[in-house]
Amino acid sequence: MKIETEYIKLDSFLKAANLVSSGGEAKILIADGMVRVNGECETRRGRKLYPGDKVELEGNKFTLE
Questions:
Q1: What is the Cα–Cα distance from 11 to 30, expressed in whole angstroms?
Q2: CA–CA separation, 8 vs 21, rounded Å?
Q3: How would DSSP label each residue in 33-64?
């Protein structure tokens, strides 16, 4: 997925990629340890993602450009 800014926050990325329908849903999935960033479990919804970062949720894998 391509981003137009320097970075995007993890919860915003999940919404932009249509992996969740709301910020509340993103918050729950992140807090429950369901999201991996660069192969590691990420529990901070405000985690800044930069081009080259890899995000994984329930078998869906994305690389930011």
A1: 8
A2: 17
A3: T-EEETTEE---TT-EE-TT-EEEETTEEEE-
CATH of domain 8-63: 3.10.290.10
> Do 59 and 53 meet the contact criterion of CB atoms below 8 Å apart?
no
Sorted by where each begins, the domain ranges of the chain are 8-63
Q: What is the pTM of this model?
A: 0.90
pLDDT tens-digit profile, the chain (65 residues): 888 899 999 999 999 999 999 999 999 999 999 999 999 999 999 999 999 999 999 999 999 99
